[in-house]
């Protein structure tokens, strides 16, 4: 069982990395329009999450995906910044970055990695609102495949936390939250695209009927 959990940890990390590669390729092609503020926030939160989760759980194997994410998220931020493949955000979205700084202060002042990680959870939840809103308005702002792969990776990590149970129930919070948020983007993007396609087909059929 122990060897299996190591394999699962590596698998989750690799899937996480593959999703980022696909995301960057699609961003280059213009199939995704990353929000620059969202990604700088996610990069900061990903780094903070990786270290606080590792400290809280005491388990490097279950934290592998988060360390991969911290590196890949930072690379993605610089990539979209350099290539200009981004859309400019509203100024109030930067408030989430302040919440990330609060998490850092909680860790530094109270020496609590668990407290810091729970603040990171809240920050992640808030930071996803612009992406959900953007996909709701235009499902072609994001491509569903990378988000689906991220969802599978977080599901594997969630399972691994359970398999490697070390009496830290709060260690389940962040992988479950990220599983739900990434899965939500994948589902919303897919469903909204189907709706757009159905409307287009219906309009085309009505035009043919009238003609």
- What's the mean pLDDT score? 87
Which geometry do the CA atoms define? globular
Biggest sheet character? none
Q: What fraction strand?
A: under 5%
Q: Which oligomeric form is depicted?
A: single chain
- Calculate the terminal CA-CA distance, rounded to whole Å: 66 Å
Number of helical segments?
A: 8
List low-confidence stretches.
Answer: none
Element order, helices and strands?
HHHHHHHH
Output the radius of gyration: 19 Å
The beta-strand count equals 0
Q: Report helical residue fraction.
A: over 70%
Structure class: mainly alpha
Strand and helix map with partners:
Layout: H1 2-29, H2 36-57, H3 60-83, H4 95-110, H5 113-127, H6 129-137, H7 144-163, H8 173-210
Helix pairs in contact: 1-3, 1-7, 2-3, 2-4, 2-5, 4-5, 5-8, 6-8, 7-8
Task: Give me some keywords for this one.
82% helix, 8 helices, 0% strand, 211 residues, mainly alpha
Question: How is this structure best described in words?
Answer:
With 211 residues, the chain is mostly helical. It contains eight helices and no strands. The protein has helices spanning 2-29, 36-57, 60-83, 95-110, 113-127, 129-137, 144-163, 173-210. Helix 4 runs antiparallel to helix 5 (113-127) and helix 6 (129-137) runs parallel beside helix 8 (173-210). The longest helix is centred in the last third of the chain and has 38 residues, at 173-210.
Short description:
Helix content is 82%, strand content 0%. With 211 residues, it is mainly α.
């Amino acid at each position: 069982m122990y060897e299996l959990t190591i394999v699962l940890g590596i698998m989750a990390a690799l899937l996480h990395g593959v999703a980022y590669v696909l995301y960057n390729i699609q961003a280059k092609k213009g199939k995704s329009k990353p929000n620059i503020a969202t990604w700088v926030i996610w990069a900061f939160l990903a780094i903070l999450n990786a270290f606080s989760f590792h400290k809280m759980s005491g388990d490097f194997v279950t934290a592998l995906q988060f360390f991969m994410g911290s590196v890949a998220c930072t690379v993605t931020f610089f990539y979209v910044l350099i290539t200009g493949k981004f859309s400019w955000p509203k100024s109030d979205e930067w408030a989430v970055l302040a919440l990330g700084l609060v998490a850092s202060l909680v860790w530094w002042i109270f020496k609590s990695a668990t407290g810091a990680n729970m603040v990171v959870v809240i920050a992640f939840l808030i930071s996803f609102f612009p992406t959900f809103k953007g996909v709701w308005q235009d499902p072609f702002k994001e491509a569903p495949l990378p988000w689906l792969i991220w969802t599978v990776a977080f599901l594997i990590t969630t399972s691994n936390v359970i398999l490697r149970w070390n009496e830290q129930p709060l260690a389940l919070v962040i992988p479950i939250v990220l599983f739900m948020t990434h899965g939500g983007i994948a589902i919303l993007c897919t469903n909204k695209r189907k709706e757009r396609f159905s409307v287009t087909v219906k309009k085309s059929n009505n035009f043919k009927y009238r003609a």
